[in-house]
């Protein structure tokens, strides 16, 4: 019996290692360029989040957010991530591109999104 | 008369054989005993002796009367626990296999169930991580987790980040946040303040571009600082120990003072 359990555990470990390596291969930042502005999201960021953030970035006033009943009762289920926004050729001389670092909070249950500027710098890029 | 004796003698020999089988079998290790064989032999032996087998209640009553030094029920309990633990281990192993297979399949196919599993895993890890010590002060962020430290020195030391940090900042400005992230294979370390006009980044093993050297230059602590001011923000770029630094402040004076007071973790 002990040998069987040891064998099973070895198989499980092998599977887990495979899962991690498959995931690791896929773990790379996501870059989206809209209207000349580049958005860099952390690896594994959902498409829904990307759409929500970019939409909110271009139309900050149009942020009608639906509040689910669960969030009304229990509060938001906040997920935090870092997003970088690069405005290329923002200056005429080097360094030309403006890089802004945002801390973004989103609720996994409803439309709530909140972004906070952490800092900005001009980088040599273009 | 001869037949009766032969029968008795034959029965005796059979009883002896059965007794021997029972003795030999019960002398084996607990896991190796063939209980069915022992059971069958006892039944047969009792039938030969013209006796009836005892019921469970009767057996318990009789065991209770035996003056054991230790309670025999304890042994039964231990054996039962062992069997139970084995069953739990088997169930856990089967569940782990199923989870691993589903994990591999869902990652490969990028389906919704994979997301669900990932969320579950994240929640689980977060639950486990709740024991992390919270100090308040400066927050360290990287792609995997967030940790709180009392001071920037403690953060840089603990996280083993070899980066210059400001020992002076204008009144009311405080370091809130530091991060160590990877952007398309380039490590980027940042120090953020409560005022977003003050910001420090470090790109390890990166050189200063010649075009940036066309900006104004000032020498501070033997470092050549290339700086410019635009829209109320002043930024200085320099290289220290093959690492490219970019320091942002609200004015040239404050920028120079911050750079002058940059310190290194020993």
Word description of this protein:
Chain A is α+β, with helices and mostly antiparallel strands. Helices cover 34% and strands 33% of the residues of chain A. Chain A has helices at residues 2-26, 47-58, 69-74; strands at residues 30-34, 37-41, 78-87, 97-107, 113-123. Chain B has 266 residues and is an alpha+beta fold. Chain B has 3 domains: 2-53; 77-128; 138-263, 2-Layer Sandwich (Phosphorylase Kinase, domain 1). Helices cover 45% and strands 24% of the residues of chain B. The N and C termini of chain B lie far apart (108 Å). Classes of the chains: A alpha+beta (126), B alpha+beta (266).
Q: Give the neighbour order of strands across the main sheet of chain A.
A: 1-2-3-4-5
Task: Please tell me what the overall shape of chain B is.
Answer: rod-shaped
Report the total helices of chain B.
7
What is the C-level CATH assignment of the largest domain in chain B?
Alpha Beta
Structural class of chain A: alpha+beta
What is the H-and-E element order of chain B? HHHHHEEHEEEEEEEEHE
* CATH evolutionary superfamily of the largest domain in chain B: MucB/RseB, C-terminal domain
Number of domains of chain A: 1
| Strand-residue proportion of chain A | 25-35%
CATH architecture verdict of the largest domain in chain B: 2-Layer Sandwich
| Uncertain spans of chain A | 20-25
Rg of chain B over CA atoms, rounded to whole Å, is 40 Å
The major beta sheet of chain A can be summarized as:
5 strands, antiparallel
Q: Please give the count of helices of chain A.
A: 3
CATH topology of the largest domain in chain B: Phosphorylase Kinase, domain 1
Intertermini distance of chain A: 64 Å
**Large-scale geometry of chain A:** flat
Tell me roughly what share of residues is in helical segments of chain B. 40-55%
